[in-house]
Amino acid sequence: MAAINADPEVMRWIRDGSVRDEQQTRDGIQAWESEWESQGFGLFAVEIRSTGELAGFTGLSVPDFLPEVLPAVEVGWRLGRSHWGQGLATEAAAAAVRFGFEERGLERLVSIAQVGNDASERVMTKLGMHPVRETVNPTCGRRVRVFELSSEQYATTTR
26-58: per-residue pLDDT in tens? Predict the structure, then answer.
């Protein structure tokens, strides 16, 4: 995960675009593990089945960085560049959405992407999400779009 977080191309759409070093990655993983304990959900490692290689992560988290959407749970993902364009983000995020609605009984999920991150917005659309607002991420001043999917909308698309 540290190599993925150290890639400027991967990180350009994350917060202010800064890369993360090994210690920052370690701290982030500890925070993700704590979220599992406190919230009952969190992030999953995404591995390539045939090789066991770590491709990145997907999962659920509380988007504390954007208070105006709270209370909310966000579905998100981050993949290493060598795994882009293969449908992995959509497949993994769809599993996280299913987990959130079917296993955790959540009422709605959001996903947040910086304006211009068309690849992430395509994934959101494939998940059945729709844009509900455009705003500014107060932690970095960048414009973001918030997409949303309700449990009712999810139920109608999975029947």
Answer: 999 998 899 999 999 999 999 999 999 999 999
Instruction: Name the pLDDT band for 158 (thresholds 50, 70, 90).
Output: confident
Length of the chain: 159
Q: How far is CA 109 from the centre of its chain?
A: 11
3-class secondary structure for 47-105?
Answer: ECCCCCCEEEEEEEECCCCCHHHCCCCEEEEEECHHHCCCCHHHHHHHHHHHHHHHHCC
Tell me if 145 sits within 8 A of 109, measured CB to CB.
no
Tokens 């304990």, residue located? 37
Backbone angles phi, psi at 123, to 5 degrees: -60, -45
The two beta strands, 143-150 and 130-136, are: antiparallel
Pair 73, 147: CB distance under 8 Å? no
The predicted structure's pLDDT at residue 159: 65
